[in-house]
Automatic annotation (TrEMBL):
<dbReference type="InterPro" id="IPR012814">
    <property type="entry name" value="P2OX"/>
</dbReference>
<keyword id="KW-0274">FAD</keyword>
<feature type="domain" description="Glucose-methanol-choline oxidoreductase N-terminal">
    <location>
        <begin position="285"/>
        <end position="355"/>
    </location>
</feature>
<dbReference type="GO" id="GO:0050660">
    <property type="term" value="F:flavin adenine dinucleotide binding"/>
</dbReference>
<dbReference type="InterPro" id="IPR007867">
    <property type="entry name" value="GMC_OxRtase_C"/>
</dbReference>
<keyword id="KW-0285">Flavoprotein</keyword>
<dbReference type="InterPro" id="IPR051473">
    <property type="entry name" value="P2Ox-like"/>
</dbReference>
<keyword id="KW-0560">Oxidoreductase</keyword>
<dbReference type="Pfam" id="PF05199">
    <property type="entry name" value="GMC_oxred_C"/>
</dbReference>
<dbReference type="Pfam" id="PF00732">
    <property type="entry name" value="GMC_oxred_N"/>
</dbReference>
<comment type="similarity">
    <text>Belongs to the GMC oxidoreductase family.</text>
</comment>
<comment type="subunit">
    <text>Homotetramer.</text>
</comment>
<protein>
    <recommendedName>
        <fullName>Pyranose 2-oxidase</fullName>
        <ecNumber>1.1.3.10</ecNumber>
    </recommendedName>
</protein>
<dbReference type="InterPro" id="IPR000172">
    <property type="entry name" value="GMC_OxRdtase_N"/>
</dbReference>
<dbReference type="GO" id="GO:0050233">
    <property type="term" value="F:pyranose oxidase activity"/>
</dbReference>
<dbReference type="InterPro" id="IPR036188">
    <property type="entry name" value="FAD/NAD-bd_sf"/>
</dbReference>
<feature type="region of interest" description="Disordered">
    <location>
        <begin position="407"/>
        <end position="428"/>
    </location>
</feature>
Length: 610
C-alpha cells in the first residue's frame, strides 16, 4: 500500500492541536524506554527528551515495582493477582460455543430471522459471531501464543517482573554486534556491565537465606561441577533488586524507575499526571503514540502523532516534532506502531513480525524432602544456628525450624551445550495462576502446605527463528486501543520440539533431587507465550553473519528490521528498542540484553540529536 501521498492530503492528517518539539521522542516508558532516556541524558545532559506511554501512572513513584509494597513483601502469594491484572492477552481467538440457555427472547446472533449484517473474516470462519470482548477472528487457536500478553502502564512490565538478569551465552544465545570476534566480545562485556549498573543487578541478595542455601547446596551436591559428565553448574540467579539494609527482611525490586532515577533530577508528577525531571525530561502517561509520519518517501520521520487518551486535553492529537524518534513500546506495541504508519511500498519492512521467537516453558512445584527440612533443625550450618535456635525458642510448636519470613531460594543453572535451556529454582507462585487445580486439591494444598517447603522449577527452552513464525497486524480489526489487532502464527520446529522434550526430562531429574511434586503442580508445559519473552518481532541485523538465519537472501532488509545500532533500515532518524530486537534463539530472560542494544544505540542517537 502506497500511503506516502496521503501525507500531503490534509484530510489524512488528524487535527494536531499542539506541537511539542523535544530533541528526542521515546514511545514507551518500560525499562527499555527508560534506558534510552538515561543513557542519552548521561551522554548529553542538554538533550530535551519527551516520552509518552499509552498506559497510566499505576504507582505513586513513576514506574516503580509493585512488589515493593509491604503487602507483597509480607505475602508474596498475593502478588500473583497483581500480575494477572496487569496482563492483557494479545490475541484471543473467537469462541464459537453458543450460550444456548439464555432467555430465548434476548438478542442472539444465530437466529436466522435476525438479519445480522456480517463482516467478512479473511480466514472464512467465525465471522458471524462478530468481534466482541477483544476477540480476534483472524487468530487460529492452534497457531496462537495464547498466553502472550502486554502490560500498559508507566514502567511497563518492569512494574511486576521477576527481575532475573542473566547474560546470554556467547555461543548458544547471544546475537552478534560486531563482525570481529574480539570486538564483539569486548562490546558485549562493556554493554552488559553498563546495563547491570543501570538496573542494579547482584547475586548475593538471597545468599544468606536458609531456604536458598538448602536448595543450592543440595543441587551442587547432586550435580558436582567437577567429575560429572557433562558438567553442571548451579549458582545464585542474578537479580535486579537489593536487600534493604535497615530491615533485611525486605527487598527493593528494581524497575524502570531505578533507571529513571539515574537522570539525577527528582521525578515530579503534576495534576495532569505528567512526569517531569528537571527541564530536560517529560513523560506523558495515557498518551498513545499512534504512528510516525514522514515527508513522502524521504526515509526521514517528520513527526509522530500522539493522542492523549485521558486527563489533560483529552483526545487531543499531539504532534511531536523531534530530531530522533525511538519506539520502545514492547515486543508487540513497537511493530504495531510501525504497522499503523504509512510507509511507501519500497520502504516496507519485509522482516517486520517475521522470525518471531518465544520460549517454551516447563514448570512444576515441588515440596522439599523431609530429610532436607529435618536437617535444618538437626544439623544446621553454623551461619544458620542462631536463626534456627531463635525460631525454635519463639515458636516451639512450629515443625519447621526456620523463620517464617526466610527469603525464598533464587537458584539457576545457566544454559550449556549439554543442557541448552535456562533454569530457575525459586518460589513466587507466579505460574500457578495458569495451572489447573480442581477445587478439592487446591483447597487441600492451600490449607496444609507450608510455603517454606515449596520450590518452583521453571525451565525456559529456545525456539528457532523461522520465517513462517509471524506476528501480523490486521487491516480490518482494531484492538481496544484503536491500534491494528495483532495475530500470531507460531509453530515449533522439529529441533526445538526435541529440545523441549529433553528439557522436560532434565527438569524432572532435577526435581527428584529436591523433593516430590506438589499435587496439582506436577511437571507440565505451560501455554505458549507464558514466558512473556516474545522476541524477534523487529529483529536486528548481525554483522559478520552473511545472512541470519542463513540463506534467505543477502539483503539485510529481508531478514532484519533494524541494523546493529537499532536503526530502522532505510530511515535516518527512526530507532527501535525492546526484546523484539533480539534475532537469535535464546532461553534466558531477555531484558538485560535488550538494555544492551539500547545503550549501544544511544551513542549513535545522541550524535544525531545534537
Ligand atoms: C510476570 C513477569 C515476569 C517477568 N520476569 C522477567 C525476568 O525475570 N527477567 C526478564 O528479563 N524479563 C522478565 N519479564 C519481561 C520484562 O518485564 C520485559 O522484558 C521488559 O519489561 C521489556 O521492556 P520494554 O521496555 O521493552 O517493554 P515493556 O515493559 O512492555 O514496556 C513497553 C511500554 O510501552 C507502552 N506502549 C505500548 N504501546 C504503546 C503506544 N502505542 N504508545 C505509547 N506507549 C505504548 C506500554 O504501555 C508499556 O508501558 C517479566 C514480565 C512479566 C510480566
Amino acid at each position: 500500500m502506497d500511503h506516502s501521498a496521503e501525507y500531503t492530503k490534509a484530510k489524512a492528517l488528524p487535527q494536531l492541536s499542539t506541537t511539542l518539539t523535544p530533541d528526542v521522542f521515546i514511545a514507551g516508558s518500560g525499562p527499555i524506554g527508560a534506558t534510552f532516556a538515561a543513557e542519552l541524558h548521561r551522554i548529553n545532559p542538554k538533550l530535551k527528551i519527551l516520552m509518552t506511554d499509552i498506559g497510566g501512572l499505576d504507582t505513586a513513584v513513576p514506574g516503580s515495582h509493585k512488589k515493593n509494597s509491604i503487602d507483597f513483601q509480607k505475602d508474596i502469594d498475593r502478588f500473583v493477582h497483581i500480575i494477572q491484572g496487569d496482563l492483557s492477552t494479545v490475541s484471543v481467538p473467537v469462541t464459537n460455543v453458543p450460550v444456548t440457555n439464555a432467555d430465548p427472547e434476548v438478542f442472539l446472533p444465530w437466529y436466522e430471522d435476525i438479519k445480522v449484517k456480517i463482516g467478512t473474516d479473511p480466514n472464512g470462519r467465525a465471522s458471524k459471531w462478530f468481534v466482541r470482548n477483544n476477540q480476534n477472528p483472524e487468530q487460529k487457536p492452534e497457531f496462537n501464543l495464547g498466553a502472550e500478553a502486554v502490560t500498559r502502564c508507566v514502567g511497563g512490565m518492569s512494574t511486576h517482573w521477576t527481575c532475573a538478569c542473566p547474560e546470554l551465552h556467547p555461543e548458544l544465545e547471544r546475537p552478534r554486534l560486531e563482525a570481529d570476534d574480539d570486538k564483539n566480545n569486548a562490546e558485549w562485556t562493556k554493554l552488559y556491565k553498563r546495563a547491570k549498573e543501570l538496573i542494579g543487578v547482584g547475586d548475593t541478595q538471597f545468599s544468606e537465606s536458609i531456604r536458598h542455601q538448602l536448595v543450592l547446596d543440595t543441587l551442587i551436591k547432586e550435580f558436582p561441577a567437577v567429575g560429572q559428565i557433562p558438567p553442571r553448574e548451579f549458582k545464585a540467579l542474578p537479580l535486579a533488586c537489593e536487600r534493604d539494609t535497615d530491615d533485611p527482611r525486605y527487598v527493593t525490586w528494581h524497575s524502570a524507575h531505578t533507571i529513571l532515577k539515574t537522570l539525577g533530577a527528582a521525578l515530579k508528577v503534576d495534576e495532569e499526571e505528567v512526569v517531569r525531571a528537571g527541564d530536560f525530561f517529560e513523560l506523558y502517561p495515557n498518551t498513545r503514540c499512534t504512528r510516525v509520519w514522514q515527508l513522502p518517501n524521504k526515509g526521514e520521520i517528520d513527526f509522530v502523532e500522539c493522542t492523549r487518551l485521558r486527563l489533560g486535553k483529552v483526545d487531543t492529537n499531539v504532534q511531536v516534532k523531534a530530531k530522533v524518534y525511538i519506539i520502545a513500546a514492547g515486543a508487540v506495541g513497537t511493530p504495531q506502531i510501525l504497522a499503523n504508519s504509512f510507509f511507501a511500498k519500497e520502504q516496507e519492512l519485509p522482516a517486520l513480525g517475521k522470525y518471531i521467537t518465544e520460549q517454551t516453558m516447563a514448570f512444576c512445584q515441588i515440596m522439599l524432602y523431609r530429610d532436607l527440612i529435618a536437617g535444618v533443625r538437626e544439623k544446621p550450618k553454623p551461619e544458620w544456628q542462631k536463626r534456627v535456635e531463635d525460631h525454635i525458642r519463639d515458636f516451639p510448636l512450629d515443625p519447621i525450624a526456620m523463620p517464617f519470613d526466610e527469603p525464598e531460594p533464587q537458584v539457576t543453572s545457566p544454559i550449556s551445550k549439554e543442557h541448552p535451556w535456562h533454569t530457575q529454582a525459586s518460589y513466587s507462585n507466579q505460574n500457578s495462576r495458569r495451572i489447573h487445580r480442581d477445587a478439592f486439591s487446591y483447597g487441600k494444598v492451600g490449607a496444609t502446605i507450608d510455603s517454606r517447603v515449596v520450590v518452583d522449577l521453571r525451565f525456559f527452552g529456545r525456539n528457532d527463528p523461522v520465517e513462517t513464525n509471524t506476528l501480523t497486524f490486521s487491516n480490518i480489526h482494531r484492538d481496544g486501543y484503536d491500534m491494528p489487532q495483532p495475530t500470531f502464527h507460531f509453530q515449533m520446529t522439529a529441533h526445538s520440539r526435541k529440545e523441549s522434550g529433553l528439557m522436560m526430562a532434565d527438569m524432572t531429574n532435577v526435581a527428584t533431587k529436591l523433593g516430590g511434586y506438589l499435587p496439582g503442580s506436577e511437571p507440565q508445559f505451560l501455554e505458549p507465550g507464558l514466558a512473556l519473552h516474545l522476541a524477534g518481532t523487529f529483529r536486528a541485523f548481525q554483522p559478520g553473519t552473511k545472512a541470519n538465519p542463513p540463506n534467505p537472501s543477502d539483503n539485510a532488509k529481508d531478514f532484519s528490521v533494524v541494523n546493529e545500532n537499532s536503526q530502522v533500515h532505510g530511515f535516518t532518524n527512526l530507532f527501535l528498542g525492546g526484546n523484539g530486537i533480539i534475532p537469535t534463539a535464546f532461553a534466558a530472560n531477555p531484558t538485560l540484553t535488550s538494555m544492551c542494544y539500547a545503550i549501544r544505540a544511544s551513542t549513535v542517537i545522541a550524535e544525531k540529536a545534537k
